[in-house]
Design goal:
CATH architecture of the largest domain: Orthogonal Bundle
Largest sheet: 4 strands, antiparallel
CATH topology of the largest domain: MetI-like fold
CATH class of the largest domain: Mainly Alpha
Order of helices and strands: HHHHEEEEHHHHHHHHHHH
Distance between the termini: 49 Å
Shape: elongated
Number of helices: 15
Oligomer: single chain
Strand content: 5-15%
Strand order of the largest sheet: 1-2-3-4
Helix content: 55-70%
Number of strands: 4
Number of domains: 2
Structural class: alpha+beta
Radius of gyration: 28 Å
Length: 380
């Protein structure tokens, strides 16, 4: 009998699989993750984005050498050159910068930087600097790196007031990225809720929501942003303006997702599991959140990653035009606004470095969105 059962197991077991091994159950999320891991560009972009989140969003006070509002005596200073070899060609294991002075060129009336090759300033890690409150409530003074002496190290140079552009860029990236993330979360909630109600309810409710979407989509985006942003009182606090700009961008960005959600719900509301939930008098919000949204959650994730760049560009455009965030709040748009003059760009090209951060962040989100879209598409 035992030999007969053993021969039966061997005959019913697929080739190459041990008969006593339990079959592995692979869920949809497992397959989704495995397919995303094959997209190398998306994986690298995800790690780079996580690095930016840690350095610029969570702990920019620690990673920046100075306070973003600290003013030095050196205006429009070019980026400091970090060296390992001195003027005589001798190697140093500790990176350093040379001391410098600024003088006025009598011919061009421009400031020129004169380097003192006899005065080396070593760059140290974990130094005490300007006091700060990490995450808004943790006091501290520890900085990742700094330089000896009263002169500073300016990796991105300084602006026209003598403020360190590297420190300001890190703090500005925090503002712009959080506006993008918070704005996308709000617009996603609005898109899922209004699109779901429109697709499930139908009738005059569907018509009203769709006509509202048509009206919003018919207005050019930038003029609509400008009109809404101009309505914000200028005497509001920077924090109040920050939240209002986030809400303004969110109120415009939900329309595309709502249209897509409505189409998905129209195709799913006749399914048996939805009809069963309706038959048991389940609340509409429960049907949307527990039965319908999980069936296309992968699309929602892709929409999230592709919408964040639009939100960041919207905030940047408003601040660049002077109707968004205003100093002393530091965002990437506020920093790019300093490079509006073509003469300033010609003389001080490092003022465009914050614009490079905008490009990098947008590309990272787009690459991650491409990877998520390929992972969610069963036919790719």
């Amino acid at each position: 009998m035992g030999a007969a059962l053993s021969s039966l197991e061997e005959s019913t077991t697929p080739p190459g699989v041990h008969p006593h091994l339990e079959a592995r159950r692979e869920t949809q999320w497992y397959l989704f993750r495995q397919k995303f891991r094959t997209h190398k560009l998306a994986r690298v972009s995800l790690w780079v984005l996580l690095f930016l989140v840690v350095t610029c969003v969570l702990f920019p006070e620690f990673f920046s050498p100075y306070s973003p509002q600290r003013v030095f005596d050196n205006q429009n200073l070019p980026p400091s050159r970090v060296r390992f070899f001195d003027a005589d060609g001798r190697f140093s294991f500790v990176p350093f910068v040379y001391a410098f002075t600024q003088e006025l060129d009598r011919e061009t009336f421009q400031r020129i930087t004169v380097v003192d090759t006899e005065d080396k300033r070593s760059i140290r890690i974990f130094v005490l600097g300007d006091s700060y409150r990490m995450l808004g409530f943790i006091p501290g003074r520890l900085r990742l790196f700094g330089v000896e002496g009263d002169q500073g190290v300016f990796l991105f140079g300084t602006d026209k007031l003598g403020r360190d552009l590297f420190s300001r860029t890190l703090h500005a990236t925090r503002i712009s990225m959080t506006i993008g993330l918070v704005g996308v979360l709000l617009s996603t909630l609005l898109g899922l809720l209004l699109g779901g109600v429109s697709g499930l309810q139908g009738g005059w409710v569907d018509g009203l929501i769709q006509r509202a979407i048509d009206v919003i989509l018919s207005i050019p985006t930038i003029p609509l942003w400008m009109a809404l942003a101009a309505s914000i009182p200028r005497n509001w606090s920077p924090l109040g303006i920050y939240f209002m700009i986030t809400i303004i961008i969110s109120l415009i960005g939900w329309t595309g997702l709502a249209r897509t959600v409505r189409g998905k719900f129209l195709s799913l509301r006749k399914e048996d599991f939805v009809l069963a939930a309706v038959g048991f008098n389940a609340p509409m919000l429960s049907i949307i959140t527990r039965h319908l949204i999980p069936n296309f959650l992968s699309y929602v994730l892709v929409s999230l990653t592709l919408s964040v760049p639009a939100m960041i560009l919207g905030e940047t455009a408003l601040s660049f035009l002077g109707i968004g965030l205003q100093p002393p709040v530091v965002s990437l748009g506020v920093l790019i606004q300093q490079a509006q003059n073509i003469q300033d760009i010609t003389l001080y090209p490092w003022l465009l470095i914050p614009g490079g951060f905008v490009v990098i962040i947008v590309l990272l989100y787009n690459f991650i969105g491409d990877g998520l879209r390929d992972a969610a598409d069963p036919y790719s």
